[in-house]
Design brief:
The chain is an alpha+beta fold and 422 residues long. Among the domains are: 95-183, Roll (Pdz3 Domain); 187-361, 2-enoyl-CoA Hydratase, Chain A, domain 1, CATH 3.90.226.10. It has ten helices and 21 strands. It has a six-stranded mixed β-sheet with strand order 10-11-12-15-16-19, with helices on both faces. Strands 1, 13, 14, 17 and 18 form a five-stranded antiparallel β-sheet that branches. Strands 6-5-7-8 form a four-stranded antiparallel β-sheet. Helix 7 (240-248) packs parallel to helix 8. It is globular, with a radius of gyration of 26 Å.
Length: 422
């Protein structure tokens, strides 16, 4: 018996030694490969420094290499020089100079996620999904996000022209825009629309969004709201933690809202609901579109997975990765994708987006005179009401086709619930 135990210990010991040696060999091979590539980089650097037509600054060469290195990883990772990094810090405070657009790289093209309401871009008629093909006289084919931001931002009052490709119309459109101070307000509207139906339009997730939502919901309760439309259309996201806190308002405590996965154990984080008094008895519709991204997709996806709300509109943008900003010693920084996030069912948002439960394309219906919802739908079906795509910052909600559909859906759910109680 002792002999058998000794043999097993010997076998396990030999196996562990062999495994350790194998791991050691792999690590050694990886280190050798890294040193080899660094040697190649150093050699190329020295040739450029000595042979290029003019004498380039070492800093310019290193910054250029870092920009290319980060751009080659994915559309959302980027190297930020000190000026760009400072601009990012200003932006997170909610007030900055620019055009009022959220941009990303999608299908290798510079793409507008959404125009921010009441900004120069919004007022000019720029739309989510527009592809920026030119900034001034420069083609954007090889632009990084950093390149684009540098050219689009500037002092308030200065002008910049952009050319966009609007694929839905097959047109190239030119816009001459004047830069302005961009003030971001997270909760844009909170009001009763019709028959005790509450409405909140949330345009971005920022540090104070939880407080803004608390205030908005409390006000709707005072006005006897008994159901809710949460409008996340053209909401490009923002802070992950803020999106989690918004979802908290509508899900019972202890439920998973979102989880992140990365290479390191510390990047695998699960976010759970923790509200003491969530609103669970209000029927909900969440409105989304192609301009809804990141935090908006987390909220919509979690509420959809728990069947807490009906998601209505069009498929969302599909931005489901987490970027960590890592400052460097000279005031520059890396914005590095460190993980992806997944909604409770295990679905990934990244590149997939959230598909609505009820797909409704947007129309803006121009009403000749106020009318009720039933008459409005009859006119649309009969082809009597003209449909136009426009940006209107102040308009009767009955001109918003998706919103009207959401109101009708909530009325139907409420009737069904009343019958069920009887």
């Amino acid at each position: 018996m002792l002999k058998r135990i000794f043999i097993w210990i010997l076998v396990i010991g030999i196996t562990a030694t062999v495994t350790a040696k194998a791991v050691s060999e792999i690590e050694k091979k990886q280190r050798d490969d890294i040193y080899k590539q660094i040697e190649l980089f150093t050699y190329a650097f020295s040739i450029i420094k000595s042979e290029y037509v003019t004498d380039p600054k070492p800093k310019d060469l290193i910054y250029g290499a870092l920009k290319g290195m980060l751009a080659g990883l994915d559309p959302h990772s980027q190297f930020m020089d000190p000026d760009t990094y400072n601009e990012l810090k200003v932006e997170t405070e909610g007030r900055f100079g620019g055009l009022g657009i959220e941009i990303s790289i999608k299908d290798s093209l510079l793409t507008i996620i959404t125009p921010i309401e009441d900004t120069p871009a919004w007022k000019a008629g720029i739309k989510a999904g527009d592809r920026i093909v030119k900034i001034g006289d420069e083609l954007t084919r090889d632009f990084t996000l950093t390149d684009a931001v540098k050219r689009l931002r500037g002092k308030p009052g200065t002008k910049v022209s952009i050319t966009v490709l609007r694929e839905s119309e097959g047109k190239l459109l030119n816009f001459d825009l004047e830069r302005a101070i961009i003030n971001i307000k997270d909760v844009k509207e909170a009001k009763i629309l019709d028959d005790n139906i509450g409405y909140i339009r949330l345009v971005e997730f920022r540090e104070d969004t939880q407080k803004s939502m608390e205030k908005a919901l409390a006000e709707l309760k005072k006005q006897n709201a008994n159901c809710l439309i949460l409008d996340l259309r053209n909401n490009p996201g923002g802070l992950l933690d803020s999106a989690v806190k918004v979802t908290n308002f509508f899900i019972e405590p202890g439920k998973m809202i979102v989880y992140t996965k990365g290479r390191k154990l510390l990047q695998n984080i699960t976010y759970k609901s923790s509200s003491d008094k969530p609103i669970l008895d209000w029927p909900m519709v969440v409105l989304v579109n192609e301009g809804s991204a990141s935090g908006s997709e987390i909220v919509a996806g979690a509420l959809q997975d728990y069947k807490r709300a009906i998601i209505m509109g069009t498929k969302t943008f599909g931005k489901g990765s987490v970027q960590t900003v890592i400052p460097l010693t000279d005031g520059s920084a890396l914005r590095l994708t460190t993980s992806e996030y997944f909604i409770p069912s295990g679905r990934t948002i990244n590149k997939e987006g959230v598909t609505p439960d009820v797909k409704v394309e947007q129309k803006v219906v121009e009403l000749k005179e106020p009318t009720d919802t039933e008459t409005l739908f009859k006119e649309i079906l009969d082809g009597k009401a003209p449909a136009k795509e426009e940006n209107k910052t102040e308009a009767d909600y009955k001109t918003d086709y998706q919103l009207v559909r959401a109101i009708d859906l909530l009325k139907g759910i409420r009737v069904y619930k009343q019958q069920d109680k009887k």
